[in-house]
Amino acid sequence: MIQITKKQFIIIISIILIIVISIGTYLLYQNSFSDFDYSDLEEGQNILENETSTSPNDISSDSSNLQPSSSSNELIIVHITGHVNSPGIVKLPDGSRISDAIDSAGGTTAEADLSPINLAYRLEDGQKVYIPSLQEVKERKQETTSSEDYISQDSGDSVILEENSYSKEGNQQSQDKININSATQTQLELIPGVGPSTALKIIEYRNTNGKFESIEDIKSVKGIGDTKFENMKEYICIK
Fold it and tell me: Which residue of 97, 107, 116, 148 is surrounded by the most CB atoms within 10 Å?
């Protein structure tokens, strides 16, 4: 009969326990694996694929929504003059209106008259906008029945373009000249020898004394003598 020591007995028991535990673990794993529902896995994979897959058309559509418009970062430069608090050059986003240019120029002064201005007019790069005064608009209404256009795209010494600055009775010669009874400061400065200071004096004289009865009456304006008048007379009219 084989004699087993205590130490050998413990080793044998340990081996048997290890074998039993291994077999039990294996059987438990097999039962769990066989009960797994593969349809759930396939359904989950299908859901994941549907959520993550996007057609080329969808990608294009989403990208177009995220992309800024081509003009969103573009600026236009506009020259605004006349009766605004800060006349000069203003930079505006493309698509801005005259009202935006006025806001950028600090708003209008107390003398401004916006009645002939189309505030919703969409501006373009390089244009010039003139904001007239109440007095200027009043005088123009007396001189002409047509509407004024206070916008110019000319560069440099650009004038404020008008469809017709003169009355219907004006002849062809007067249409080629500047009406000293209704011209703005900018227009008066186009007359040879007339700078900003003289132009303001003409307007001040006109507001104080009324319209000029003849082109010679402009010599009553301080600073305009015979010599200067001779250089001006071919370029001015009174109606």
Answer: 148
User: What integer pLDDT is reported at residue 128 of this predicted model?
Assistant: 86
User: What does the block give as tokens for 229?
Assistant: 């008048």
pLDDT tens per residue across span 89-118: 999 999 999 999 999 999 999 999 998 888
Whether 153 contacts 78, CB under 8 Å: no
Strand pairing of 75-82 and 88-93? Answer: antiparallel
- From CA 188, how far away is CA 194, in angstroms rounded? 7
Say if residue 146 is exposed, middle or buried (CB neighbours under 10 Å; 0-12, 13-18, 19+). Answer: middle
Chain position carrying tokens 């993550």: 52
**Token reading at 77:** 């430069």
Q: How far apart are CA 73 and CA 125, in angstroms?
A: 14
Q: How far is CA 23 from CA 17, 18, 30, 109, 168, in A?
A: 10, 9, 11, 98, 115
Of 134, 119, 131, 133, the closest CA to residue 81 belongs to 131
Low-confidence ranges of the chain (pLDDT < 70): 1-4, 31-72, 142-175
Say if residue 32 is exposed, middle or buried (CB neighbours under 10 Å; 0-12, 13-18, 19+): exposed
Spatial CB neighbours of 83, under 8 Å, sequence gap ≥ 6: 108, 109, 111, 112, 113, 131, 132, 133
